[in-house]
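Lecture notes, unit on protein representations.

Consider one protein chain, 233 amino acids long.
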Amino acid sequence: MKTNIIRLKDCENSKKFANWCWQTSAVNTSINYFNAVIPDEVDDLMSGLRIEWKYPWNGEVNDIKSGLTLRAYQTADPKKRMACFLSHYCLWEETIKSGEPMLILEHDAMFISKKPIPFDEILDSGFDIVGINEPFRATRLPQKFHDTIQKDHFCKNDVVRAPLIDDVNIPQGIAGNSAYVITPKGAYKMVELTKEHGAWPNDALMCRQLIFRLGVTKTYYTKTQGIRSTTTL
């Protein structure tokens, strides 16, 4: 399984954070740095991929097609958030092309477990996408997220379905979207969802309401480094 760490190639801080992510790693896979899409590349790439941004920049919209309530994210530069989405999208396409699962990490992820990630167990779990991040500092209602998955006894292994922690019409899924294993089937589903609903922030589109087989590990293998977001600035 290939591991890709998304970093901004011309940003020294991003390279430093990505290097720290690599240094803390306990994975037995080849690790690559993926040069993130930058804002200046967004328009041409969106046009070339024939996808449109369909998520609101202000307020709240009741999306009839998905049945979900879409709430605007704090975003100073829309192109940065779009570029973040496109970086993940490019890796989803690479996963489909390779036919092999991939571990995708953003530069602000770091490993907190010295135990190797049980990729075989994750892939045998039946889930198409599995988040490995701890929820604290990575998602809203982190304690509820933690408590819900730790009390889930339906799965025999370490992987459970992404928890429902908010109103059912609010998109919700894995913690932070900065560390997850995605299978070719999961990547294909994400690309198809993009075609159907348009481009959204990653953690909104990759939600349990649109992907039934979206899982998380009860053992946390990564967490965020606690740095400032590059998409809200």
